[in-house]
Amino acid sequence: MATTKERCGVEYTHVGKSGLKVSNVCLGTMTFGKNDDHPVAVFSCPTQADEEKSHKLLDRYVELGGNFLDTANVYCSGQSEQIIGTWLKKQKRDNIVVASKVRGQMGMEPNSVGLSRRHIIKSCEDSLERLQTDYIDLYQTHIWDDATPIEETMRTLDDLVRCGKVRYIGACNLVGWQMQKVVDLTKYMGLTPLISLQQQYNLLTRHPEFEEFQVCKNEGLGVLPWSPLKGGVLTGKYKRGEKLDHTSGRIAHIAKDESKAMQSAPAWSQYANNEAYWSLIKTMEEIGKAHGKSVAQVALRWTLQKDVVASVIIGATSIKQLEDNMAVGSGWSLTKEEMEKLDQVSIPDIPYPYEMSWRSNSARANRYNPRPFIANVY
């Protein structure tokens, strides 16, 4: 969690044990661009922002103290990076930290996907061109690639750092054994280490606490949670029993055809009649009322106050939404009791062997040895 307040609206913190400092609220740009007709286009919805609107969001984000942008080559098939690039060209480059990703399919050719040396280098060069910059601050693998040896991937990323095209490297969407394998491999081979893990993390998706975040705590990596509002499910705007307006947002848009549901746009049907979900929302409403904050702000603040988190990635389709989300960056906090209450009401089922291990170790406190997040429920 960030500890030094430097500008109004946000705080700044290091990403893991690296020297890189970013605002504790990162602007995610998956909503920039419209490209539904591309054969490999990543999901978009009616609330996607065109270039003019995106630039206004970027301008306001920076005015509020933000300095950290997250994109990916696959977002609207490169349009997100292009939009950032035309805006970035008018900025002082050193003031902005740009993160992008590689792995997704960018065309129909057999080598246009994955984490091979060929695809990584080609993708990096293409991203640099779209972003209109000489370097990417944080270059991340978007997901594991079973077809490529991890040694090939990490050696290539190390080469990009050594030649100056990339400053730091990170990973996204890994499971525990993959995370530890990458960390150990970079140590063994003397390669540039990861500084971050970008992972879905929110009050409805806490399973990264079982494995991945333990690696991050032990190895000094910063966590960058994506979808902290679970695609909108944790905003509090959806009410029990109401009919969804399919043009109102990502969740409502997907609800008309839930076969297209994905992690960033989950199916509303799994929550509409879920008593545990409504109990969570009620608790968030009560806590929000005590602070004069919204349900969404409570959800974001809970994520931000987790000690392994460096910066939380928000999305915004309007200036008001951006300002509301940015308001979680500083100036208030949830109490210890409120954090524990949210932890309890949102706790997932803890399977074997985690439950047995954490219960057995509940009395084995050692302040020099990091403990699992969920262990505090015992």
From TrEMBL:
Residues 25-346 form the NADP-dependent oxidoreductase domain. It holds the Pfam family Aldo_ket_red. Keywords: Oxidoreductase. The keyword Magnesium does not apply. InterPro entries: AKR, AKR_Detox_Biosynth, NAD(P)_OxRdtase_dom_sf, NADP_OxRdtase_dom. One of its GO terms (molecular function) is oxidoreductase activity. GO terms for cellular component: cytosol. The keyword Oxidoreductase applies. Belongs to the aldo/keto reductase family. Aldo/keto reductase 2 subfamily. This is NADP-dependent oxidoreductase domain-containing protein. It comes from Mytilus coruscus. The lineage of its organism: Eukaryota, Metazoa, Spiralia, Lophotrochozoa, Mollusca.
